[in-house]
Amino acid sequence: xxxxxxxxxxxxxxxxxxxxxxxxxxxxxxxxxxxxxxxxxxxxxxxxxxxxxxxxxxxxxxxxxxxxxxxxxxxxxxxxxxxxxxxxxxxxxxxxxxxxxxxxxxxxxxxxxxxxxxxxxxxxxxxxxxxxxxxxxxxxxxxxxxxxxxxxxxxxxxxxxxxxxxxxxxxxxxxxxxxxxxxxxxxxxxxxxxxxxxxxxxxxxxxxxxxxxxxxxxxxxxxxxxxxxxxxxxxxxxxxxxxxxxxxxxxxxxxxxxxxxxxxxxxxxxxxxxxxxxxxxxxxxxxxxxxxxxxxx
Length: 297
Ligand code: ARG
Description:
Elements: H1 2-6, H2 8-26, E1 31-36, H3 39-42, H4 44-59, E2 63-68, H5 73-80, E3 87-88, E4 91-92, H6 96-121, E5 125-129, E6 136-140, E7 151-156, H7 159-166, E8 170-174, E9 176-179, E10 184-186, H8 189-199, E11 204-209, E12 227-229, H9 230-237, H10 246-258, E13 263-268, H11 274-280, E14 287-290
Parallel strand pairs: 1-2, 1-11, 2-8, 5-8, 6-9, 11-13, 12-14
Antiparallel strand pairs: 3-4, 6-7, 9-10, 13-14
Bound molecules: arginine (ARG).
């Protein structure tokens, strides 16, 4: 007890580590697909912390797989190259020239930056495009008319990812896909991550977002729904509580869990160390979606 007073802070830290123990055991060898985008990718400090979290996950025995988004770099590059985009119903038309720039920024800049940071922190990361090894095969997405080289994922071939995981690497994937016509398509990064998680039968699919999680009251940021089962999530999907960008995100999570991913998590990427807090604490910090009632695990 005397020790407790004197070393109070240190003991509190040790207790946090001990809280992680059952999860380190439970998730040993588990695959965790992380969609990394938004603010967590822009703010340098947070970026570094996300990278540290990912490397830590690897060192304690999990298998993180990173899928990243585009971020503002694509628009900046299009602007600086004076490439003007056409829009149809608010959606950018990805013509051949635009697609070239998108691919260049995704694979040549963003992907490489993430790989470098992970390596610098002590991970062994390899960057690949969804085109590599035909990881992502797409067809032109015509749901919103012809908006150019925007792809709908038709096939996912995870051999290349498995190979990397077997050898201890952290795969970092850019959301490009090869078309059945041999051309390059841009695919939505959330969808790509979800589909890869399904194909890998991942333990977790984690979306790092710019929101706290799913809110039960849209006007109250503290009303995060901590865990929700599939049926309830589907019901919620049909209500006005799910708006804007959350609609496709929740859809992605529901689909991933329906197709074999154990848990999907929507967490706040703006929060420092949100990955560790979600995975290694009992409460987590965002919304966790699972197949059925899972209060007891
Ligand atoms: N750390 C545990 C897990 O990853 C529990 C997470 C709980 N998260 C939540 N949002 N309620 O499975």
